[in-house]
């Protein structure tokens, strides 16, 4: 249990200065407030503030600075490393700031810093519009966008951060700034890929695109003994598919009694998931080859509402289960890379775990490498290794499997990683600089300007010079 190191009087003054709830270790909702999505994370902050608006965020930042507190910032609470919460210190929680306002004529959405993708999709789809999010709708807009944002519309419309028109930020000294192409350009550049290093984003302005209401989708599964053949066919398919198509593939047992009959439930499978960002009737034809790689075990493909597709995986990642995810950008899908993907998928200790390959390219590569701080535009594929399991006694086996897989797969990569799938925070200390490569120095310069004392350090941390 966290001990309060701040006097009661100061806390009461702080409580009076904000509209949101201030939660202390002896409050009844303390455990609820400190709980995040990943059941592996069990942190005990001194204090949490559930901000209701920008003023609360400014007061919270000032309070943290004046009392020299460690700070964690919570958006959707879905970072696998649990960076939304800390031991000791103050959690600045934006998860009640979920407002979304759409301007259908200008095709823009204003999104508060604690919204989830479900909040965004709900409002934007009322106008037949969307902006690229992630593939699970319960994930936070803030953490995902600031780290890049790889979702179902990526090859057509780019990353989430590529669709940012403007961001409102509370910096470490409590200043409220707007960052976009005309104002505070260096901050805007850093925010698009550099994570939560530079301040607390209270509002995002996104560009919107016509999508839906229905989209053609593909979700087809084949037997695991055909995985290598399917991955070869996938490599060919992705080399010619139009940008409207964004797909990923997962190999694992994917134990799910609702999806699979008993005779294949415990078998290794390979699945292909994606959608077509264009007219559904055209999309069904373009996606058809993905459904003919072999004889499917199951095929759930079809034209569905975009919001339904966006939520399709939500139930597969329940709150409180144990998760350890890491990633690696791949140079390509060579024969030996395919062989090792199949090997590691088969070696997974948990039947809920998968080895995933995300297709990149398309609109992601249309943005120049120097235009934003995001570090993964060079790669044709992203490898995601997801350990998902239930029992704490299986922690070592699952974490070890992810680490061993990553170590082996480095032979097919320049070693750079997608920092939004970070495993544990400390796993990445040495990888952050090498992943950002030539942009790292520029990120340090932005950090020096906006957070020289590293108030925002619980993230994929860019260390300031001082
Ligand atoms: C089930 C699941 C599915 C996912 N799917 C995808 C996917 O399809 N594509 C993809 O790209 N990623 C995906 N991710 C990874 C995701 O991008 C990261 O986990 C991201 O950190 C989640 O953001 P959050 O706001 O929910 O996280 P939080 O845990 O709340 O925050 C993570 C970090 O982001 C920063 N942060 C949060 N809010 C703010 C804010 N308002 N201002 C400044 N900094 C802030 C802080 O540094 C914080 O520590 C997925 C994760 C999960 C758990």
From TrEMBL:
**Keyword hit for Flavoprotein:** yes
Q: Which SUPFAM superfamilies does this entry report, sorted A to Z?
A: FAD-binding/transporter-associated domain-like
Q: Please list the cofactors this protein needs.
A: FAD
- One Pfam family name is BBE
Per the UniProt record, which residue ranges are transmembrane? none
InterPro entries in the record: BBE, FAD-bd_PCMH, FAD-bd_PCMH-like_sf, FAD-bd_PCMH_sub1, FAD-bd_PCMH_sub2, FAD-linked_Oxidoreductase, Oxid_FAD_bind_N, Oxy_OxRdtase_FAD_BS
FAD-binding PCMH-type domain residues? 41-211
Per its UniProt entry, which superkingdom is the organism in?
Archaea
- Note whether Protein biosynthesis occurs among the keywords: no
Q: Which GO molecular function annotations are given, in alphabetical order?
A: FAD binding; oxidoreductase activity
Positions the record marks as coiled coil are none
Keywords in alphabetical order, please.
Answer: FAD, Flavoprotein, Oxidoreductase
What protein family does this chain belong to? Answer: Belongs to the oxygen-dependent FAD-linked oxidoreductase family.
Specify the protein name: FAD-linked oxidase
- What organism, scientifically named, is this protein from? Natrinema ejinorense
């Amino acid at each position: 249990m966290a001990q309060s190191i701040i006097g009661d009087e100061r806390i009461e003054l702080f409580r009076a200065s904000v509209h949101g709830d201030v939660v202390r270790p002896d409050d009844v909702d303390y455990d609820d407030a400190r709980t995040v999505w990943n059941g592996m994370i069990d942190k005990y902050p001194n204090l949490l503030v559930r901000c209701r608006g920008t003023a609360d965020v400014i007061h919270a930042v000032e309070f943290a600075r004046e009392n020299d507190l460690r700070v964690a910032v919570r958006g959707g609470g879905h970072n696998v490393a649990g960076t939304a919460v800390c031991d000791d210190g103050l959690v600045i929680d934006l998860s009640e700031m979920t407002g979304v306002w759409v301007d259908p004529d200008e095709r823009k959405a204003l999104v508060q810093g604690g919204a989830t993708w479900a909040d965004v999709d709900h409002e934007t789809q009322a106008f037949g519009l969307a902006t690229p999010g992630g593939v699970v709708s319960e994930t936070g807009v803030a953490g995902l966008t600031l780290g890049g944002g790889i979702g179902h519309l990526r090859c057509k419309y780019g990353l989430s951060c590529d669709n940012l028109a403007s961001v409102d930020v509370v910096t470490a000294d409590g200043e409220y700034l707007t960052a976009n192409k005309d104002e505070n350009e260096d901050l805007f550049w850093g925010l698009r890929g550099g994570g939560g290093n530079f301040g607390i984003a209270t509002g995002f302005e996104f560009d919107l695109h016509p999508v839906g209401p229905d989209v053609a989708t593909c979700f087809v599964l084949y037997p695991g003994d055909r995985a290598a053949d399917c991955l070869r066919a996938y490599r060919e398919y992705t080399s010619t598919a139009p940008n409207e198509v964004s797909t990923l593939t997962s190999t694992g047992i994917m134990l799910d009694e609702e999806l699979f009959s008993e005779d294949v439930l415990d078998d290794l499978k390979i699945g292909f998931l994606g959608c077509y960002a264009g007219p559904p009737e055209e999309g069904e034809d373009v996606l058809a080859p993905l459904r003919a790689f072999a004889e499917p075990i199951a095929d759930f493909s079809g034209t569905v509402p975009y919001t339904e597709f966006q939520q399709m995986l939500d139930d597969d990642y329940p709150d409180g289960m144990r998760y350890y995810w890491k990633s690696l950008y791949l140079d390509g899908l060579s024969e030996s890379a395919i062989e090792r993907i199949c090997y590691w998928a088969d070696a997974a200790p948990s039947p809920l775990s998968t080895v995933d390959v995300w297709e990149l390219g398309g609109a992601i590569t249309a943005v120049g490498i120097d235009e934003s701080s995001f570090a993964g535009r060079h790669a044709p594929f992203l490898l995601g290794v997801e350990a998902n399991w239930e029992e704490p006694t299986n922690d070592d086996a699952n974490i070890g499997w992810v680490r061993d897989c990553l170590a082996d797969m480095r032979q097919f990569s320049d070693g750079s990683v997608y920092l939004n799938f970070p495993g544990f925070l400390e796993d990445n200390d040495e990888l952050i600089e090498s992943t950002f490569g030539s942009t790292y120095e520029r990120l340090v310069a932005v950090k020096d300007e906006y957070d020289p004392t590293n108030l925002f350090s619980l993230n994929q941390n860019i260390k300031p010079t001082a």
